[in-house]
Structures
1.
Amino acid sequence: METYLDAILERHRNLASNDDRDARELFDEALSIPRNGSFLEALSSPGLSVIAEVKRKSPSKGDLNLFLDPEVLAQAYETGGASAISVLTDSDAFGGSREDLETVERSCSLPILRKDFVVDIRDIYDAKIMGADAALLIVAALDDDQLSELFEAAISVDLEVLVEVHDEAELQRALDLGSMIVGVNQRDLRTFSVDTKRAERVLGSIPDEILAVAESGIATPEDAKDLALKGFDAILVGESFVTSPDPAKVVSTFDGFPVGPRNMATSI
């Protein structure tokens, strides 16, 4: 039975197979563009950091804020105290676009994560060309050779990487790459169901020197505080912010909680 992830990846692989642009030319262009800021440094300040997401819709929730203004939203996020911004560029499933990311890049000074289903080296170069400071690599979507190739491609054009995992086996693959930023997604990308205990379970195996990000299922300031106390350095939140009439105010209520020691987390 085809899963949500299978369908999304098939579409992205088809797009990649029909992309006849020269990868070397894209590499040269990406390398020539200076990075605006460091995603890692922005998330390393004391207290819980917030990665605020620009997301119009999702497969699980449908339309969230289909006609949002990326410029206005990015500025609200910065005003509210977000440390970084994540921008969905997947069009079919999430309603995003490269134009959304380019608009955000022009509108604020925060480092930007391109959040998409990266399957091809040109996706990496495109992220840098669009104005991203970091790209997302999803371990569940890639085999070891693909993961390594794409990770190294990002490093080669001075693009940081958030490597996303769902369990300890995927975490080990991320650590084997040399990842410095690991995101634990509490949403199963095959079913789109959320397990709010997943982040805590996986966190117990993340070394202290690795920056840990919790993703999905974070709906309230209490959720944010709980994840911070367990030892997460940052959270990535979309729905609660894009659906709010005052995103700056809401972001401020999720930000800055004291980060506790990770040995309090429960390992699998």
2.
Amino acid sequence: MKKSIVILLLIVVIGFIGYKMFYNGFSDIESIAIQTYDKPFKKGVITTDKDKIATITGILNRAKHESVCYELANEPSYEMEIIYKDKTNDILWIHQGFDKNKTLLYGNNCNAYFITEKRTKKMLNLLLNENN
């Protein structure tokens, strides 16, 4: 009995640590707007499809996260606005080709997220193609 309680407690602790390590705080997203950097959000594509948002949330939560402020010399490829159900928002600037096979998603609150080009293509296809 004592051994099974210790094993159960160990599983709970490992699960909690894994959750904290691999969760970047993207949840309860209501909609996502994306457009090229030089256009306003009203001219971009707005997605409210729950399946697309769930897939994109998974990509963002699995991204490598750093709390760092960058000063970048080049303009981002896209600008993405995430609107949450509590009506707050985050803005992420998407810098494709930031590093070899890496895309930088840089937030308005000095948070940097790195995803692979494969995940970038999947995310952009979901957001920009209304047929998917």
3.
Amino acid sequence: MKLTPLALFVLSVFFVQLGYCQKTKQKNEEQPNIIFILTDDLGYGDLGVLYQNERKKNNDRSKPWAFTPHLDTMANEGAVMLQHYSAAPVCAPSRASLLSGLSQGHANVRNNQFDKALADNHTLANTLQKAGYTTAAIGKWGLQGDKRWSENGASWPARPTNRGFDYFYGYMTHVDGHEHYPKERLYRNHGQVWENDTDVTEALDKCFTGDLWTAKAKQWITNTVKNNEKPFFMFLAYDTPHAVLELPTQAYPKGGGLKGGVQWLGTPGHMINTASGQPDSWMHPDYANAIYDHDTNTTTAEVPWPNTYKRYATSVRRIDDAVGDILQLLKDLNIDDNTLVVFTSDNGPSQESYLPKPYVPNHPTFFDSYGPFDGIKRDVLEGGLRMPLVVRWPKKIAKNTVSNTPSISYDWLPTFMEAAGLPAPANSDGVSLLPTLTNSKGQKDSKIYVEYSVGGKTPNYSAFNENNRNRSRKEMQMIRVDDYVGIRYNIEDVNADFEIYDIKNDTHQANNLAANNAMPELQSTMKARILQMRRTNISAKRPYDNLAIPSVALKKIKKGLRWTSYAGVYPWLPNLEVLNPSKKGKTKNVNTFNYTKQQQDLYLFEGYLEVPKEGTYTFSFSTSGKAVIKLHDAILVDADYNYQANTVKTETMVLQKGLHPIRIYLHNANRDAIPFKLEWKTNNITRSSIPQSAFYH
């Protein structure tokens, strides 16, 4: 019987997936369950273990403190990462980078593009799905699509179940997350809860979302563990303590886990066990009658905390109670030891409350929610980007681990992939953090880069260094190189210098080491790197978009590229550098490379591309397999996820004359003699193949 090309393709996919599934099945006992808990607008300084406990110890009555006992316990039982960054200082781009594993130099959602559809590419969820996981998203989404950003946006093409989640329960749209009683809508006329594709809001009487998401998460975890042998991944995205600063109906139920804490009842009108009493009414007793020295004068009487801050502290404490509840559930289900739990936030603390008068405004200065830093939400100063980060995995992470390794949110995709036993996709910007978390060797440096634009100014808080008050934001950038952070605010001159700070010793970013043209070498490095690790995006234009990407200077080079081959079957084109190579060599001509002789399907070609003169280059690429090409750390071509063989992809970059590092990740399963075609053109010259003489190593 002669098989058609389509039949052959279907069979090949079947056998690849069969082999892969068998491999996954063998690993299931070792693969951890993974829970990623993301809070909304929670500051680094809001956690006891990171900052509030120190305020209590200092006992300065003019500086109130709050408590997070369960998170403190979680930290003692696992790890805290003291130098972890968000990919952006506001929710939508931050979440997009987290879920896609891409920096803001590559993610499709940037700036304030709330509700824009997350790109149909690799995500935390669909990679873990293919690794054998059952997946769920609970809580706030905000990346489903909207007509503001695309013609089909109103149909929500990027709802969670279209981006790798088997199950979704929560708020679909960004603005819904600003109200925490979806049915009553006490302060905001928004609040629509979805279970997959069904609106279930009508049954949610008196359901405070902080409790609702926790109860649903516990129910889903319990049912999944009882009825499914596969490991699970849960993205639990709380919409608190983001404004509006609402209160729960009652005290957090005692206990936790299977029989205590919040519980899912499933009865319309009484869906959870805290859906009774008065909405927006209960304050935690630690704060209900709290007083402080409001005028820093010990001879005058202390006064009660303003209601606004009692609400904020109660909201944070409710999250803390929820974390303790969930961790107890893991113990009750006997899955605690091999469940990896990450707790963090999407960006720095906010000055929003959405409360009407006479409530006082909300300012993070009351608790110093930004911790030992300057800046808040929407700033690329440390206070807007440095995140609280606690990780717990008893089987692998030692108790009381404290890490000063710099890292960023898009590192979690490769981290979870390594935990699941697979390499991350080749297009990923992050690195695995498992070596740091497990105190083992081989930790690679994170590529920490942020770009963001918004109007307004940094608040004029006296706690901030004078140079960081009332700063016009607009176009901003941040890059970290070792212990130095470079920032640019209100970028008008594309050649403007970075302010450079020794962030280890100058957490408030007060002493600009680059003043008076100091540190010229690091300045040049930062200016080059921010162009070498990003691509332009027409929906978020930057003043530096048209600057030529700098080349590199090398003294000794040879013709051709280095190549490395790899064995293995993977559900995507992997980041080959983390795999053990099969063979290595050099080739002067990739078009005459003998793939049949090497007997492998995966290849990495690397070296340098010589650009003959500065200009705008349009590259055209096609392959019979899969490929990802990077120039420096910028993704030139992504022909992996859903790529159709031999489809031509066209990309444009402005390049300086000289040598540019190039990496070609290739999957050539058919072992075609010439599996890809790479062409370029510039200055309206006819498109032509890049000559082999342009490649060096």
